[in-house]
Amino acid sequence: MQFFDDKTICSDCLASEKLLTSSYNMAITECANDQLRRDFMTVYQDEQNCLKAIWDVMHSRGWYQLNMASQQEIAQLLQRLQQEQMQLQQGGMAGVQMGTALQGGGGIPQYRV
Question: How confident is the model over 27-59, as pLDDT tens digits?
Fold first, then answer.
């Protein structure tokens, strides 16, 4: 029988909460029924609170380390997002790229700022 340590269990819980909140976010976005949308939003907020609680435990125990962004990295990201916003306003395909960038994709390191 294999046992998991606390760090592994918390990591699994965090990944599960991230998936749940992402799924509820999509359900909220796609929902046409106002009452169901409100219900999804209530559950979404509860899941966000759980996610934050798990993250707090992991961070306090040193299991979830963050790279702090330098002022230069923040300025570069801001400049990139402003450029993509300008392209979007001009009617380009930047909306798809910007969405990817904001979700942590597009080669942008994830920082807590």
Answer: 999 999 999 999 999 999 999 999 999 999 999
Nearest to 67 by CA among 105, 14, 110, 17: 110
End-to-end CA distance of the chain: 41
- Cβ contacts of 61 within 8 Å, gap of 6 or more: 6, 7
pTM: 0.62
- 96 alpha carbon, distance to own chain's centre: 17
Amino acid at residue number 50: C
Q: What is the rounded distance in angstroms from the CA atom of residue 81 to the CA atom of residue 67?
A: 20
